[in-house]
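User: quick one
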Amino acid sequence: MNYSIIRYILGWVLLFESGFMAMPCVVGAIYQEKSGFSFLITALACLVVGFLLTRWKPKNMVYFAREGFVIVALSWIVMSAFGAVPFVLTGEIPNFVDAMFETISGFTTTGASILTDVEALSHASLFWRSFTHWIGGMGVLVFLLAVLPLTGGYNMHLMKAESPGPSVGKLVPKVRDTAKILYIIYFVMTIIEIIFLLFAKMPLFDALTTSFGTAGTGGFGIKNSSIGDYSVAIQVIVTVFMILFGVNFNAYYILLLGKNKKNVFKMEEVRWYLGIILVCILIIAFNIKSIFGSFGVAFQQSSFQVASIITTTGFSTADFDVWPQLSRTILVVIMFIGACAGSTGGGIKVSRVIILLKTVKQEMGYFIHPRSVKVIKMDDKAIEKDTVRSVSAFMVTYVIIFGFSMFILAFDNLDMVTNFTSIAATLNNIGPGLELVGPTGNFSVFSPLAKCVLIFDMLAGRLELYPLLLLFTPSVWKKN
Amino acid sequence: MNYSIIRYILGWVLLFESGFMAMPCVVGAIYQEKSGFSFLITALACLVVGFLLTRWKPKNMVYFAREGFVIVALSWIVMSAFGAVPFVLTGEIPNFVDAMFETISGFTTTGASILTDVEALSHASLFWRSFTHWIGGMGVLVFLLAVLPLTGGYNMHLMKAESPGPSVGKLVPKVRDTAKILYIIYFVMTIIEIIFLLFAKMPLFDALTTSFGTAGTGGFGIKNSSIGDYSVAIQVIVTVFMILFGVNFNAYYILLLGKNKKNVFKMEEVRWYLGIILVCILIIAFNIKSIFGSFGVAFQQSSFQVASIITTTGFSTADFDVWPQLSRTILVVIMFIGACAGSTGGGIKVSRVIILLKTVKQEMGYFIHPRSVKVIKMDDKAIEKDTVRSVSAFMVTYVIIFGFSMFILAFDNLDMVTNFTSIAATLNNIGPGLELVGPTGNFSVFSPLAKCVLIFDMLAGRLELYPLLLLFTPSVWKKN
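Assistant: Done. Structure below.
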């Protein structure tokens, strides 16, 4: 284990966080809020600690998968711990576990809140809350890779550990260039959404925070009613952008810079993703028609909610917890499917679901013709055996973490649907669940122990399980 | 596809069923019940159809995995269809879908009932209901293999398709001898339980039916209170035998005939199985202590319920649906774990859970040392790669069937816990779930469509998913 490189990169993460935190300071200054100082103090603290940690460059800049995973897991924990401090300092979230929950919910783009009244927060805090979504959406280490000339390390390991999906590919030969391209697409798309929202007469502050929440597929709203009180035009814009940010970013790269732009339409994952969305929207729209009077309104509400849940954003415009069981069940099922790999969305990911379905088909083939050799293909290319094995193992790990979380949450003696959907909502980085954690509820109902489990689930979900689990594996920490 | 052999073996299955059905006829005669005639008529019908189907021996007795799975799946469906007829004829379950549900619940050893008042049934029907558990527990085709000199076929395929567990081994070189040994152990253990229950002053009829339900890990009771109104001694005997019938039968073989009897204590699956039972009993006993006043009573109730659920029997002595959330959640989690492979119990099976846990450990190993080669071992022997792959695929198929069932059940607009636990209770062949299908409820609340899905789940669970899914795969039905 190369401890120096871990220390060094953690330092850089803090330096970047200090820079990010300058923004809520500015917001605080604009709105002349005292809370701005809390952000200023924390930003300075990040700067000092970051400076000290990066002061000595490691002699050995080489690191491997092991270090990569540890760096990513620790970065997210350290970043969240510092990110939570301003909430405590301002007194807006006095309890540190709660502040950690809220911050990790932000960075992991979950959007689950322990706050009962978000409108009571200062503008600086609201801005920071939403901005953590934007940072966490594409990933802070991907940002670091894009900006910082890290040499000697197997930077792909960092990227792999932080980027969602069963197999992370490089768009271009250099990791750094790939990271840059991703961030540029991400940045430009966010700007476009902001402009659209401004045209729809949303105030600038609301347009910024809502766009951060959409881009990162986060879901923190700045109103208690989430997006419910905004105009239909705004809701439609948010719906469209939620779906767009849930698409595999490779698709945008192909569209913008690819040689063969037609390949976009051949991307199996994107086609499945859009297909699932369409089918779910239609079923739910018919199912809730009677609630909203007309099919048009039902369709609009259904599409917002389906987009919000499958992309794991978690914004809401209606209390879907009171919808019929069919709609609720569909929403719970798509909570697990999630968005495309290589997007900012969470969940199991559409590509994994496709691979899993193909694994089952392959397995049934073995029963019919035991001696035949079968290859699982995606986009007409054979998937490596290791990837297939790893997707199945992911699924198993996922179920085990889920079961274990159910067990710990049961100690709180809340109802089973609340427990089940709050794990689904955190492990898939969505935000709201059903019953007590439904769109009108929040996560303040849980005990500190349960909150810690849900914090673990949020991080595990965002970092795709293993980096976090590896932290608890003694052999990882052995010296080389 | 060798259609002749399918026809031929299905015929034999019906002949056997005709023989099995002679027993409720006798019971009907003893109690002088009219319902006995319904069984007689059906038994004769089985005899005639079975005779016609077995009249012409197929020219080609060779069959492969494909035919094996189809034979097993069809046998269970045909057997259930004929088995349901008496219930309709007696008028005790007039609706055929309901009668099918009840019979399949019997044969698959689920024990889920659509009846609101089982005590209203005739003795002949009660006997048949419980006897289907006994037949289904070890499997009708295993019975057929033990009795019938089938030559030329790859009989192992039949055994593999009907016996539970990730890898079915032969105890002795010949399949027929293995089947015989299994049935002898099964028969003798059932007799021992009957004797114990008679000593505990249970009436003979009750002792027979209860023992059938325990041996097959079925769970149909002959009282509305299941086992609740019997003495503590009887409850303890049933608890012990439920646990015994959930043990891998290989263990008994080793104990009785094995050269090295110490190997029993090395069987990883059995150790895990007993360990999980012990831990769950203790946690639940502490959790429900306040309900029952003393730890002793709580321990007895907890052990009965844990044994009943993990072995997927489904008897009940208390309404565990009103227990605290922690106890309810543990019971739901062990619903999925199930009993040992090679026992009469259902669920995912302890050995699969162990292999899955080891798969996760292996996967984490790959993250730490990407190039290392790792082998998953059980009982100090390396598990074949195909078995590991197949266990993961099983898990995935399981989750997909579960999700699909949730979707269809949602149309009934019942609550989510009822839906979730009724699928868990049928797919794992347990019986009772929570809420509307809890120990005091029953499955009559569902629509015919939902009942059909649950019927599918019961069969899929008992036959370990694939034989049933293969029936819906067109390529299976192609001529060679």
